Amino acid sequence: MSYRILREHTFFHGQSIHVKVIKREPEIPYSLHSHEFFELVIVISGTGINITENERLKVCCGSAFLIPPKVLHGYEEVDNLVLYNILIGKNILSASMVDLAEIAGFKSLVIDASHTSTIPCLSPLQLEKALVLVEKIKLENAGMVYGKGTAALVYAYLLQLLVMLSRSKEKPLYTEAYGNQRIATCIAFMEKNLNKSLSLTELSDQAHMSASTLNRYFRLYTGFSPVEFHIRRRIKYACSLIQTSNLTMEGISEATGFSDGNYFARQFRNIMELSPRQYKRIWTNQPST
């Protein structure tokens, strides 16, 4: 049986940097196919089944895996599956593959004919760190300027991302099997309320924990306090609105629950390392309003 092959020239035509970030929102059922390039997948929400010639592997929020060239894979039973595909030219990793392969966790990151295990989930903190690097790759690609070291930075961020993901596979990862379900419930409540601030009291009520207990467990699982984590999620939502809506900065500030525009700008800069207006100029090539 013949399968579809996704070609490098289709995705990198005219590009000097053979690294590309594509957000699939949502991902759809996709029959078995292969690529001429590497594909790094990071799932940010929903569930599905990653299929190969030999396996059916469940993926969920935090799943991360690398599909090498020529390896068949696809998706079935998708349910609101949203993910990032980071496409990597087949020769990009050649100089670093030996070093990467020496990391104990790199092998479990790679989905190939010898892969026989499940795909574990990154912890919320690990996922947050991974998405920051994905965002940096996107921003450098979008604002590519000759003579500014853009290619070097893109490749540096990519290698940092692969090393981080590989190292994360060496440790016990956050999964529903032993993760605290109350924390998961609290995070789900946050995701439904990105348009307003939430107090620690409101969040502890959702988790059915005291404020001090919630704070302690939340830092254990995510590296942030509950309120800090919710602010980061609201800033991510603000990034999405900047890219996809016609709202003014004041409108985006209000839509993400920041009544004070200056406070919104400070939180945005703390997390994204640039101002909302700088972010908008990069993504829209338009002056911010």
Automatic annotation (TrEMBL):
UniProt keyword annotation of Ribonucleoprotein present: no
Which InterPro entries does the entry mention? AraC-bd, Homeodomain-like_sf, HTH_AraC, HTH_AraC-typ_CS, RmlC-like_jellyroll, RmlC_Cupin_sf
Keywords (alphabetical) are: DNA-binding, Transcription, Transcription regulation
Q: What is this protein called?
A: Transcriptional regulator containing an amidase domain and an AraC-type DNA-binding HTH domain
Q: Name one Pfam family in it.
A: AraC_binding
Task: Say yes or no: keyword Lipid biosynthesis present.
Answer: no
Task: Quote one Gene Ontology molecular function term.
Answer: DNA-binding transcription factor activity
Q: Which positions fall inside the HTH araC/xylS-type domain?
A: 184-282
Coiled-coil region: none
- Taxonomy, superkingdom: Bacteria
